[in-house]
Amino acid sequence: MVPSLPTPPIDYIPSDVNIPDNYVEHTLATTKELPPITLNNWWKELNYVSTIVLTVTPCLAIYGIFTTKLVWQTALFSVFWYFVTGLGITAGYHRLWAHRSYNASVPLEYALALAGAGAVQGSIRWWSRGHRAHHRYTDTDLDPYNAHKGLLWSHIGWMLVKPRRKPGVADVSDLAKNKIVRWQHQWYLQLLIIMAFLIPSIVPGFGWGDFRGGFFYAGAMRLTFVHHSTFCVNSLAHWLGTTPFDDKHTPRDHFITALVTVGEGYHNFHHQFPMDYRNAIKWYQYDPTKWFITVCYWLGLASHLKAFPEGEIKKGQLTMELKKLDRKSHTITWPKSSNDLPVITWESFQEQSLTRPLVLISGFIHDVSSFLDEHPGGRHLLAKMIGKDASTAFFGGVYDHSNAAHNLLAMMRVGVLQHGLELESERAIPPSQRLQIVRAVQIADLIRAADGGENMFSFPSPAGNLYSADEVTKL
């Protein structure tokens, strides 16, 4: 008889251990949203705790601006405390606990737990549960701050009202085992008061006699900035910028977002590689949270910094570059392939050449009437090849033509010589199409066509993997 493992405490059992494979579809189909918010029920749907915090704090800050002089010492301390509490969220709540992108020593964990409490965004456990749901269900109705519901909703709206639908399940059993996380969760309200308002008031007060300025500027105003700074990760980072790693979802990279979010602005990278301790991978990109974690590593306070393999990152970048090239390729007129042209016998080619200037090169029949008088070598060199195979002359016998000449020639195709093009060789493919974007499914179609007896390949240009014409024909 196989001995059974001891059952862990109920809090430690993963909450998603028994969810069905079609969890998202099943949940959306079987659970109902709360009714829409209207003028008649809005006051019933408010989340009063969040609403009070997010409205009273800026009001205090504005009152302080008009009633309290800002001294330079308090201004500097306010900026310092902004970064301390901001890093509590970015380096602590986000990268350490929500994503486990590195390990922190006990002193660093306590410091980040305290700093995070000063940002007044809920406990580590509550915050991480919602953020893990955001990553798992990005841009769906199970995402607590779904960007598709609008910039205002993802920035602050989702906190002002009751959730219209319970966020998707996300396991935080690992955090339930962490004694520092449990400690912060238990004493969160007391820690919030100390870190958000007491210390910001006491330090300026005893330091340079500015209790009032400390409360309004280092306390209320600093907290307002920290709130909207980190909220921008949910809103601005899903709206402003580019998608250099993946465009499946809304997260984007932008320097401005990085500036206002303590380095969390390279959000497209983060959603692709969430367990990477970095947001910015280039040395010159602004990511003070990465720099903070790195310094902690040098000091022995952090370890096991996780970074995705460089090759995997480059694959994401290359995929997006190929997609951009594909979109650009659709704006260009390409030459017809052998599949799109009539098959012409040698006799018909000879006959038609008597009434129009047709030239045979690499199995393709070209009408050069529009280029006779434009030919750099003179009209006579083209005229003498009418009704003939000019392949040898074109490919270096008379002149080894440029890539531009190859590309231009391909646009003059009007037919394919019967039995003259069993397979489009690389010489028959213009340089502009030799490295062409072909989807894997299209390559499979080409292989099936070849196995079925088809004797001509075409090279369409939708996005996918990059193959040379020679590589595809060898398949």
Automatic annotation (TrEMBL):
Gene Ontology terms for molecular function: heme binding; iron ion binding; stearoyl-CoA 9-desaturase activity
Protein name: Acyl-CoA desaturase
Catalytic reaction(s) noted: octadecanoyl-CoA + 2 Fe(II)-[cytochrome b5] + O2 + 2 H(+) = (9Z)-octadecenoyl-CoA + 2 Fe(III)-[cytochrome b5] + 2 H2O
Family assignment from sequence similarity: Belongs to the fatty acid desaturase type 1 family.
SMART domains, sorted: Cyt-b5 (SM01117)
PROSITE patterns cross-referenced by the UniProt entry: CYTOCHROME_B5_1, CYTOCHROME_B5_2, FATTY_ACID_DESATUR_1
The keyword Chloroplast appears for this protein: no
Domain of life of the source: Eukaryota
Predominant subcellular localization, coarse grouping: membrane
Gene Ontology annotations of biological process type: unsaturated fatty acid biosynthetic process
Record keyword Iron present: yes
